[in-house]
Amino acid sequence: MDPEVSVLLHCTAWGGLLEPQVQVELSARFNRQTDPALESHIEEVWTERVTMEPWLFNGAKFRLHSFSLASTQHSCPHTPQPPCLNGGGDRDGRQCSIQKEEEGQHETKGNAESGRAQVLRHQRDQIDGVIGERQHNDKDLSSYKQREGNLRDSQTTTPGCRDQHPAVGSSAAEAQPFPQRDVGGKGEGPTPILTLRLGLTCYRDFLGTNWSQRARKLRQRAEVEYGDPLALLAQPLGVGGVLCTADRQVVLIRRSQQVAEARGLLDIPGGHPEPKAVFEGLDEEDRIRVEMLQWREEAVVRELFSSVCAEIRDEVNVPLCSLGEPILMGIALNHTSAGRPSAEFYIRSSRALLAGGH
């Protein structure tokens, strides 16, 4: 594994997580800590960067504070510091703080069948195939392509698509929409397994904290003052997509030279879920507050899953109607930017790469 990247959360114990298996908790408590001196430093860094690179622009982002797993069969490994925010007596779920990944990689263990929906069992072969554990089975998608409204634009005709199905040139079973989510567990749909605890941050704050030359000192100071080395960091939650084509190729892109991070390097398609996407018609991003999002949790989860497909559409020029359901494989931390988190997804395309379909 790349020494600059570590795994915070690995979802293959469930065969990957679909959108109905994920929920969010939004609160201002999950925002970063700050003070006037730090704000002054962030402003200085931002002014300097924009002067040198005028194409940069600020934007609101979701801040990943921590996560919890609902299953009692899966818990955080023990580390020198307590990895669970709610103590060891919580039998309903374990709350795992991101900074504890710095002590070592997290691997969920336990009974893989516990609380797992049939939909996830069928997806295991595809997830494992991408990470080299076993081969794809093209029929494995048939049991869970039934969800209504899986992507923002999938129900409308997209240029370059022959019809309105989410898959082009695939079987009829693959092209069907997925059943509606059932977060209450009363229907047939799977119930949430993963809860992401999110606050708000922005790109400007990321450059002034995670990407700052003072990042190490900020971590040390935050550990002393708050008992959390990431408390002063922006920690914007990114997304990345392992795009597997119909001929079983994985698509990589080369990053632009006009970005702050990893210029010119090969990468998977990705970006960030956008809080502004939850508020259609909102022009001023600085008006977004956590309190405005607290009644829109499902829309936030939808943005998290659909944003990775939107990034693939924009960066690889693949229409949404040819993309399958995003499967959350886990969360990785990028240590070149002080442990910035990114949710990593697996997405199948009905188009072939070698045949010129992408």
TrEMBL record:
Q: Which cofactor does it need?
A: Mg(2+)
* GO molecular function terms listed in the Swiss-Prot or TrEMBL record: GDP-mannose hydrolase activity; metal ion binding
Basic and acidic residues compositional bias: what residue ranges?
128-151
Region listing for Disordered, in residue ranges: 72-95, 128-189
Entry keyword annotation includes Iron: no
Please provide the record's keywords in A-Z order: Hydrolase, Magnesium, Metal-binding
Q: Which domain of life is it from?
A: Eukaryota
Answer yes or no on keyword Hydrolase: yes
**Name assigned to this protein:** Uridine diphosphate glucose pyrophosphatase NUDT22 isoform X2
Write down the species: Salmo salar
Which gene name does the record give?
A: nudt22
